[in-house]
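Table S2 (text version). Query chain:
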Amino acid sequence: MTEWDYLRKHTDPEEWEVLEQFIEPVEEIRKIFQNQGHSGMSAPWFASRLGQIVENILTYKPLVPIHEGEEEWVEIDNGIYQSKRCSGLFKEQNQPPYYLDAIIWVEPSGVTFTGIVNGITSRQYIKYPFYPKHFFVKIYENPETEDYIIIDKQVLKEALEYYKPFTKEAEEFLRRMRNEDR
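Corresponding structure-token output:
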């Protein structure tokens, strides 16, 4: 029995229908890998790197960070540009670029959304070189006031340090968190 046979035996039939289509291409990659003569030392590193490349391609992420330059952008509307390599990255004329999904808000039920919580938006300005990163920030809604309470303040701080705050409220939150750290 091959590893593929074991996988099929322990995989849901609907999932197997999708996976089965990848057997031949994966086997081709394995042959190339073997022909390159990787040892026990190099094989794990190259396998990990190749896996990351495949994951990025399949999830529509860039393979290398995005750098400043006009070749990165396409105009989609009058003065509004979208990255050719990262669909959630935009810039407007005379404004810094921003990433739409920098912060993902997570409710106690596990439901996630993008938008504005306490004046802090999911959209954040980027720093170059840029690689897209999502920060999942837990929140809950105060039943008395219907305002959101940010639970993961440290995660939000990390997000606002990775990016550049998009709103004054985000700048103020980051300033308060840094003062608390002192």
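Notes on Table S2: The first strand starts at residue 73 and ends at 77. The longest helix spans residues 42-58.
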